[in-house]
Amino acid sequence: GILSGNAVIKVSPSASKNKTDQPKSSIEINLEKISLKDLRHTFNLSLPISGSLNMNAQALVDLAFTEQPDGDLIATIQKFELAGGNINLQDMGSLNLPEIKFSSVDLKSKFQAGKFVIENIRLGTAADDLSGTVKGDLNIVIQNMNGQIFPVINGYTLSVELIAKQSFKDRASFFLSFIDRFQSTDATGTRYKFKLVSMSPGAPPQMTPLQ
Q: DSSP secondary-structure letter at 184?
């Protein structure tokens, strides 16, 4: 197994070509029960996360990255945990987060014309002390610099809706104080609805009410 799970990656030629008439590659990635904790240590990620990841991705990719990839990505994480603390999100800035646990996280997304489009992220369930949804897109450019491939986030627009039970509010009051102005209360708990917009790397996002 790989990272306590299984991974299958298939790369094959496709009939599609880039603007210079070079063939693109068809890439399929299937991951099962990948440990996020092991993934974090292997790639030296700053996020203190754990959980079990399943993922399916299919894309048409110009391996020289003279053009951005197009494809679909679906993922599920079981028993997601974020230890909390001051988290460095690199191009998206830093954020002080409380401990967060979701029984599951479900992502449906696609890469399209230089954007990572988040059709829906479902965070947790009604049984969790924090749950919600995220939709939007990130402007991502994957660059090839002398054979080294890395993504650059040039901005993002995210629509966020969170539902917090009293137990989460009690231990996350500092974090929630930043979004208090977007709250309303109903039978499910306290609901926070807001939009995050950033137009440049590292710039703090503008936060506005989500209509």
A: E
pTM: predicted TM-score of the whole model, two decimal places: 0.87
Q: Give phi and psi for 78, each to the nearest 5.
A: -100, 140
Per DSSP, which regions of the chain are E strands? Answer: 6-17, 23-35, 49-61, 70-82, 85-88, 94-97, 100-112, 115-123, 130-145, 148-164, 183-186, 189-198, 206-209
**Dist. CA 102–CA 53, nearest whole Å:** 13
**Which ranges of the chain does DSSP label H, i.e. alpha helix?**
36-42, 166-171, 173-177
* Domain edges within the chain: 6-209
Residue 2 DSSP one-character state: B
Contact 47, 60 (CB under 8 A): no
Block means of pLDDT (10 residues each) for the chain, 211 residues, are 85 88 92 93 85 97 89 98 78 74 98 94 97 96 84 92 95 91 91 94 86 81
